[in-house]
Amino acid sequence: MLRRLYQWVIDLAERRSAPWALAAVSFAESSFFPVPPDIMLVPMCLARPRLAWWYASLCTLASVLGGLAGYAIGALLYDSLGLWLINLYGYGARVDAFTEAYQRYGHWIILIKGLTPIPYKVVTITSGFAHYSLFWFVVLSVITRGLRFFMVAGLLYWVGPSARAFIEERLGLVTAAFAVLVVGGVLAAVYLF
User: Fold this and answer.
1) How many domains, the chain?
2) pLDDT tens digit string along 85-136?
3) In a domain, 177, yes or no
4) What confidence tens digit (pLDDT) does each residue in 9-35 have?
5) Residue 89 lies in a domain
6) Neighbouring residues of 163: CB distance < 8 A, sequence distance ≥ 6
7) Is residue 140, in this structure, part of any structural domain at all?
8) 91 vs 155: which has the higher pLDDT
9) SS3 of residue 193 by DSSP
10) How many Å apart are CA 30 and CA 73, to the nearest integer?
11) How many CB atoms are located within 10 Å of the residue 147 CB?
12) b/e map of 27-65 (b: 16 or more CB within 10 Å)?
């Protein structure tokens, strides 16, 4: 079953509509959707390594635009939609501490959390709620999201064919390692922040 799912994702990544799907997932992940864009970015870079830089650029742009939507949710709709989303992801009890941390470490919070598998929407919504500087929010989001997506794309561009062969030979192990990474990132977020 895992192999069929993998092949389905690779086939989807080769379609002409794949960049639009990547942009949509990347936008949504930064504002409300729980699935990271890496789910689309990795197979797309594996399927077409020569387009990896384009995919990373598209992913970064859509993620920053989605981050602005998340920022607006936090700034304008926090009491209704924003608080509901924060509670949905289990961070409701930590919003006050997170907001206070923004007063001292706002730049670092955006830079560090933007690189991790921790849900970026928590950062975008809380940035809006805390009325963090919109200018710095955009600048730091471009840096951190771009760095994250370009690192993934670069790695897959340079080792794409061998990475694809490695993944296909050890699909179960790679899936388990990815799951451990995501769960570890979430646990780190819960205990560190």
Assistant:
1) 1
2) 777 767 667 777 777 787 788 888 888 888 776 678 888 988 898 889 999 9
3) no
4) 667 777 788 899 899 989 998 988 877
5) yes
6) 46, 155, 156
7) yes
8) 155
9) coil
10) 11
11) 15
12) bbbbbbbeebbbebbbbbbbbebebbeebbebbbbbbbb
Provide the residue type at 114 as one letter.
G
Looking up tokens 């709709």 gives 77
How far apart are alpha carbons 48 and 28 in whole angstroms? Answer: 23
Q: Residue 186 falls within a domain, yes or no?
A: no
Tokens of 157: 């561009």
Token digits of residue 65: 């635009």
* Residue span of the structural domain in which 114 resides: 56-170
Q: Which band of pLDDT confidence, cut at 50, 70 and 90, is reported for residue 181? A: low
Residue 162 DSSP one-character state: H
Residue with tokens 């200018």: 135
Contacts of 151 (CB under 8 A, 6+ apart): none
DSSP string, 113-177: HHHSSS-HHHHHHHHHHTT--HHHHHHHHHHHHHHHHHHHHHHHHHHHHHHHHHHHHTHHHHHHH
Residue 109 sits at φ, ψ, to 5 deg, of -60, -45
Q: What does residue 94 show for φ and ψ, rounded to 5 degrees? A: -105, 5
Token pair of 125 as six digits = 């919504």
Token pair for 56: 């990373």
Q: What is the pLDDT of residues 38-58, one digit of tens each?
A: 888 888 888 888 899 999 999
Angle of CA points 19, 5, 44, to nearest 5°: 25
Q: In whole angstroms, what is the distance from residue 101 CA to residue 189 CA?
A: 14
